[in-house]
Amino acid sequence: MEVTNEMGCVLRNNRCPWGEYGKINPALCMITKAIFARIGIRIYKNVSVYINETIAGGNGSCRIKLCLGR
Predict the structure, then answer these.
(1) Which helix (H) or strand (E) holds 1?
(2) Exposed e or buried b for every residue in 28-43, given b needs 16+ CB within 10 A?
(3) Backbone angles phi and psi of 5, in degrees to 5
(4) Of 54, 53, 49, which Cα lies nearest the Cα of 34?
(5) How many other β-carbons are positioned within 10 Å of the β-carbon of residue 15?
(6) Higher model confidence: residue 66 or residue 8?
(7) What CA–CA distance (Å, rounded) separates 70 from 63?
(8) Under 8 Å between Cβ of 47 and 40
(9) What is the spatial distance between Cα 12 and Cα 27, in angstroms, rounded to a whole number?
(10) pTM of the predicted model, to two decimals?
(11) What is the residue-wise DSSP string for 18-55?
């Protein structure tokens, strides 16, 4: 995990949680985004989730950015 500041963080993973290189279904990246958003909203009430890179998209890693609102 790369912490960007107190208002958010970036999670980076070099291994796809949905299978080798996201071959199962690249659309599962959107499910990952939804999971992080649901958990984040329960904890912080105001959170935005962005998927900046995906293994399925050929980026070599998955990078999810969580931004906390004020």
Answers:
(1) none
(2) bbeebeeebeeebeee
(3) -175, -175
(4) 49
(5) 10
(6) 66
(7) 23
(8) yes
(9) 18
(10) 0.66
(11) TSGGG-S-TTHHHHHHHHHHHHHHHHHSSEEEEEEE-T
Determine the Cα–Cα distance for residues 51 and 34; give it in Å rounded to an integer: 11
Q: Say if CB 62 and CB 1 are below 8 A apart.
A: no
Neighbours of 16 (CB within 10 A): 20
Rounded percentage of the chain residues whose pLDDT exceeds 70: 80
Taking the alpha carbons at both ends of the chain, their separation in whole angstroms is 22
Distance CA 40, CA 44 (A): 6
Q: Comparing C-alpha atoms, which of 44, 26, 34, 57 is closest to residue 67? A: 44
Spatial distance between the Cα atoms of 46 and 18, rounded to a whole number of angstroms: 27
